[in-house]
Design goal:
The complex is a heterodimer. Chain A contains eight helices and nine strands. In chain A, strand 8 (about 200-205) and strand 9 form a beta hairpin. By secondary structure, chain A is α/β, with parallel strands linked by helices. By secondary structure, chain B is an all-alpha fold. Chain B has one domain. Chain B contains twelve helices and no strands. The chains are: A alpha/beta, B mainly alpha.
């Protein structure tokens, strides 16, 4: 079932095209990678997919809902942003609790969800620590945990492993694969790393806001590695 | 009913989040309280020597002894509340600029709930700091008064300022640009609010202009509460008459302030309905 549909979207910043005539669909349960050099339009595309911004032209439909109904879509999406958006002055528990309330959970359910996710991502001991006191890897885990609090159907991640050491990256990928395999969660992510792209089912390659390739990751690596 | 309960909880949690962020920044809390207190001492004791206080007393229709310090103290507290609550507009633009607003706006929580939560917390924090300055004044200057109506009056002013701050913040992408408003909008509006001199003593065109100034009504309410409490301290037996004479003025000021709050809140929601806050 194709439930994420991107039709002819274009986004300009002034006279510069950040994205131009982008078309693709994402199937349920797949890991979909968006790759490209810096300034290719990956983050703009992620913002449009998560309905943070509106395209100038074209349409994005998620479960049949467009930008006007973005609050309906919100429950289906879990989002991990490129830059940290956790409140650094607040504790891990507070950050997660506030987020759970925003997604409409009661106080007691929120506490249970936090407990379960902290156990899954192995940061129970850090729950009462401020975000500013955490390492980059643990912060990333907390951000992913926050995105998963409401059990979304789709997890959208913008450069989830950027700035992490190899061990943290591998650990994070084992979580991502587990979520995809066990829960059937659809994953959309952007990445710079070839080894991460190889873990995706399909890949969209962007360059200067234009689509350069759309196909399987195997096909991408075979044909494009070294050329993009 | 369940949906209503969740909405209330969301408003509380957004306000509480803002409150925690403010409370944990102790340096900011202390400096914003001390600054107006120092200003009051210099303004009240310095400018008080050259100002014709009798003319001011006539203009504000106050019978009895009054010093310039006593006259400007509610204005000074109002300035504290306005500065602090308006600064939340800066934080709002900064959150937009740095992407910190995204987890909120990309949640299913309606945008108006997010805005309301932020406005209430900004108003509350502004009013709380105003109240602390009031308490310091009460202890230090002796003649400064405080009543049960002080905090609600400061809260209404704080909410008005925060609503205006967030409304203006919608048009800015950079927090640095938003700060220009302080010099071109907020300080002139404070001066034209009657905080430091009665607007009634100014030229007619300034009086007319003040009638369109939302802060004029907010500050007026705070000042009327102070006059009410001063009169109450002098003659408690006259409570009924005081409520009728002064109470109506307070109610009127608060009503006009609420009308401005509602106006800007509706405008905010019209703007964000089809436009992302990102």
């Amino acid at each position: 079932m194709r439930f994420i549909s991107v039709k002819n979207i274009t986004k300009r910043y002034g006279n510069v095209f950040a994205l131009e005539n982008i078309n693709f669909e994402v199937k349920e349960g797949e890991i979909f990678g968006i790759v490209g050099p810096n300034g290719a339009g990956k983050s703009t595309l992620i913002k449009i997919l998560t309905m943070a911004i509106k395209p100038d032209e074209g349409e994005v439909l998620i479960y049949g809902s467009d930008f006007k109904n973005r609050k309906k879509v919100a429950k289906k999406l879990g989002i991990v942003f490129q830059e940290t958006t956790l409140d650094v002055i607040l504790t891990v528990r507070e950050n997660l609790f506030f987020h759970a309330i925003l997604f409409g959970f009661s106080s007691s359910i929120s506490k249970n969800l936090i407990k379960n996710l902290a156990s899954f991502f192995n940061f129970e001991n850090y729950l009462n620590m401020k975000i500013s006191e955490l390492s980059g890897g643990t912060r990333r885990k907390v951000e992913i945990a926050r995105a998963l609090l409401h059990s979304p159907k789709v997890l959208v991640m913008d450069e989830p492993t950027l700035g992490l050491d190899i061990e943290s990256r591998n650990q994070l990928w084992s979580y991502i694969k587990e979520l995809n395999k066990k829960n059937g969660m659809t994953i959309i992510l952007t990445s710079h790393y070839l080894e991460e792209i190889s873990l995706c089912d399909r890949v969209l390659v962007l360059d200067s806001g234009k689509m350069r390739f759309l196909g399987s990751s195997k096909e991408f690596i075979k044909n494009f590695y070294g050329k993009v | 009913m369940e949906k209503f309960k969740i909405t209330i909880l969301q408003i509380i949690i957004i306000s509480y989040r803002e409150f925690l962020k403010w409370w944990r920044n102790k340096f900011k809390v202390i400096t914003t309280v001390i600054q107006p207190f120092i200003w009051t001492i210099f303004f009240g004791l310095g400018l008080g020597k050259i100002v014709n206080i009798n003319e001011i007393a006539r203009a504000i229709n106050y019978q009895g002894e009054i010093s310039y310090l006593l006259f400007i103290f509610p204005g000074m507290i109002s300035t504290t509340v306005i500065f602090i609550s308006f600064n939340f507009g800066h934080s709002f633009v900064e959150e937009k600029e740095r992407g910190f607003l995204r987890p909120l706006i990309l949640s299913p929580t309606p945008d108006w709930v997010i805005v309301l939560g932020k406005i209430l917390s900004a108003g509350f924090i502004g009013a709380l700091q105003g109240l602390i300055v009031n308490l310091l004044g009460f202890i230090y200057f002796k003649e400064i008064s405080i009543t049960f109506l002080t905090f609600p009056a400061l809260l209404v002013l704080g909410i008005l300022t925060a609503t205006l701050g967030i409304f203006l913040g919608l048009f800015f992408k950079k927090a640095g640009s938003y700060d220009i408003l302080l010099f071109y909008v907020i300080i002139p509006a404070i001066l034209l609010s009657g905080a430091y001199f009665p607007v009634e003593l100014t030229p007619l065109w300034m009086i007319r202009l003040a009638q369109f100034n939302p802060f004029y009504y907010g500050v007026e309410t705070v000042k009327k509460v102070f006059v009410f409490s001063l009169s109450l301290e002098k003659d408690f037996s006259n409570l009924k008459e005081l409520i009728i004479t002064k109470g109506i003025g307070i109610f009127e000021g608060a009503l006009y302030t609420f009308m401005f709050i509602a106006f800007f809140f509706v405008l905010i929601n019209v703007i964000i309905k089809n436009k992302s806050l990102d």
